[in-house]
């Protein structure tokens, strides 16, 4: 028993001496390592993938469809805000904030296509058939607000329609 106490005392003394020398041994703790890894994984990723609310996901898909061809025009912005107000039953200030946050999250034009595909795949089970139909109508109205729909935009809308409309889940509309 006295040998075991001597070994434990030596180990503790070595660890204490290393700590006093400034050598951090916190990385050896598996629980600390797991927490650090989970934190880095959650906060080091693209913030667009942490969105869970279907209203915010729908806003991202609508604004993303409009931004596939470049910048959003003034007509598309106004139409998007009007659609957000009427479909989501929110006031003008909230619709403006929703548009601004969606546009900010989709700021990198070179990544919009892949971001939208991943976002749509991740959340296709979160929409009821009524919500999916409403989403399709909003996307078509906003994209066609300035008169023309590009081939990329139409292809994206068709892919969302194919993924979302056939999914039966929940009932009701947004409100």
Please describe what this structure looks like.
With 175 residues, the protein is mainly α. The protein contains eight helices and no strands. Helix 3 runs parallel beside helix 7, helix 4 crosses helix 5 and helix 4 runs antiparallel to helix 7. Helix content is 66%, strand content 0%. It starts with a helix and ends in an 11-residue tail after the last helix. It has two domains: 42 residues, no CATH class; 118 residues, no CATH class.
The main sheet comes to: none
Which range best describes the helical content: under 10%, 10-25%, 25-40%, 40-55%, 55-70% or over 70%?
55-70%
Order of helices and strands: HHHHHHHH
Low-confidence stretches: none
β-strand percent reads under 5%
Rg on CA atoms, Å:
25 Å
So what's the overall shape?
Answer: elongated
Number of helices: 8
Count all strands and give the number.
0
Mean pLDDT: 87
Summing up helix and strand content along with how strands pair, one would put the structural category as mainly alpha
- Terminal CA distance: 70 Å
Please tell me the total number of domains: 2
């Amino acid at each position: 028993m006295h040998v075991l106490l001597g070994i434990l005392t030596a180990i503790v003394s070595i660890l204490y001496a290393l700590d006093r020398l400034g050598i951090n041994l916190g990385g050896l703790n598996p629980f600390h390592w797991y927490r650090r890894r989970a934190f880095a994984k959650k906060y080091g990723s693209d913030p667009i993938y942490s969105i869970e609310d279907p209203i915010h996901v729908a806003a991202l898909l609508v604004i993303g469809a409009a931004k596939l061809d470049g910048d959003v025009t003034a007509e598309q912005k106004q139409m998007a805000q009007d659609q957000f107000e009427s479909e989501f039953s929110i006031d003008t200030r909230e619709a403006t904030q929703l548009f601004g946050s969606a546009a900010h999250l989709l700021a990198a034009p070179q990544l919009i296509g892949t971001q939208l595909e991943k976002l749509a795949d991740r959340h296709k089970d979160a929409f009821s058939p009524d919500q999916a139909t409403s989403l399709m109508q909003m996307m078509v109205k906003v994209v066609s607000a300035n008169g023309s729909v590009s081939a990329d935009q139409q292809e994206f809308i068709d892919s969302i329609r194919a993924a979302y409309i056939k999914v039966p889940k929940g009932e009701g509309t947004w409100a």
